[in-house]
Amino acid sequence: ILVIAFISVTFYFSKIEKKKIELSNKYFSAKVFIDNNKKDKAIPILKEIILENDPTYSALSLFLILSENLIIDQNEVINSFDHVLSNNKFEKEIKNLILFKKALYQSEFANEKVLIASLNPLLNTESLWKPHALLLAGDYFFSKKEYLKAKEFYIKIMQLKNLSKEFYNHAQIQLTLMPND
Questions:
Q1: What is the mean pLDDT of residues 174-181?
Q2: CA 51, CA 44: separation in Å to the nearest integer?
């Protein structure tokens, strides 16, 4: 029984290692295609990697798609985010990073309700990404000239402790730029 268990465990870990190497090779080949201006060949490879449900390479592939603007269809990108988030196990702060990136992506086109729903998991917890989420929400409302809503988020930033000065400075500057209505 011990020999069979040992062989089974060895086989299992060998199979996992092979899959990681295969995903790594696919990811690298997609990057080479992008570097050689053959983005159309990289896209299906990256989509395939996302569907492999590997926390590392699925997330990296999604981030590469975003950074290179490889997929234009907003719904497809959001569905990719949702797939990565629901089919992979991440450490808490890595998951929060992906949630933040999704909200950041949506901030360009989503309405208030959708954006706040995306940010809520970050706004309602003590996460490293909470100040970023507050700043994103404040800037979103500031850009829409909804200054009362923006002010609410900037004030929350000012109330947080132990943040980088940049957060406080940005919030303070935005508050001073608001009209005094």
A1: 88
A2: 11
